[in-house]
Automatic annotation (TrEMBL):
Keyword field contains Lipid metabolism: no
Organism expressing this protein natively: Anaeromonas frigoriresistens
Family: Belongs to the transferase hexapeptide repeat family.
Keywords, alphabetical: Acyltransferase, Antibiotic resistance, Repeat, Transferase
Name the record gives this protein: Vat family streptogramin A O-acetyltransferase
Length: 211
């Protein structure tokens, strides 16, 4: 035994509210790492893509999510397609309504573009969090429920609120540096299985360093 089958949509057939979203049908400009799951008690977790909003292929922005992330229900990823032109007197999108207003359709380069949205590995995103366009969330970070993330989040930190603000570091700077070197999420299945107690214990990092 080397752990659950990472190729199954539902790794535990008895829990149909949780699925490995890397096994959903592929979608352009969305990359999701192995073992990352989405949990939703209100609708099928297979509807995960509904939570990626204003994501238009012609803009080219990507949503990239690493391995072993835990994503709770109601999480929204707002992509660059939601942005309005902001360099004029008004931000109103006249062009989308027709009737002659389409003559002021902006060129793509006139629209605000924040780049790719990137979620690292081993990130826990709480219920009803909103991630704004172009945000980068580092490995091992935690985003508290009901937060709106408008700025980058550093690795192994906890953020919360609207807008989300730094709450605290999960570990000392020295331990964070070591964790980013170990990159446990890249271990093979057997090594992860053999080290589960270390990975889930309070003093697990000390064991990795000194054993």
């Amino acid at each position: 035994m080397t752990g659950p089958d990472k190729k199954k949509l539902y790794p535990n057939e008895n829990i149909k509210t949780v699925c490995y979203i890397s096994n959903l049908p592929k979608r352009p400009n969305v990359e999701i790492g192995e073992y990352t799951y989405y949990s939703d008690n209100k609708k099928s977790p297979e509807k995960f893509y509904d939570n990626i909003e204003h994501h238009y292929e012609f803009l080219g922005d990507k949503l990239i999510i690493g391995k072993f992330c835990a994503i709770a229900e109601g999480v929204k990823f707002i992509m660059n397609g939601a942005n309005h032109r902001m360099d004029g007197i008004t931000t109103y999108p006249f062009n989308i309504f027709g009737g002659g207003w389409e003559k002021v359709t902006p060129a793509v380069e006139q629209l605000p573009f924040k780049g790719d949205t990137v979620i690292g590995n081993d990130v826990w995103i709480g219920q009803n969090v909103t991630i704004m366009p172009g945000v980068k969330v580092g490995d091992g970070a935690i985003i508290a429920a009901n937060s709106t993330v408008v700025k980058n989040v550093k690795a192994y930190t906890i953020y919360g609120g609207n807008p989300a603000k730094f709450i605290k570091k999960r570990f000392s700077d020295e331990k964070i540096e070591l964790l980013l070197k170990f990159k446990w999420w890249n271990w093979d299945e057997e090594k992860i299985l053999n080290n589960l107690k270390i990975l889930t214990s309070k003093d697990g990092l000390d064991h990795l360093i000194y054993d």
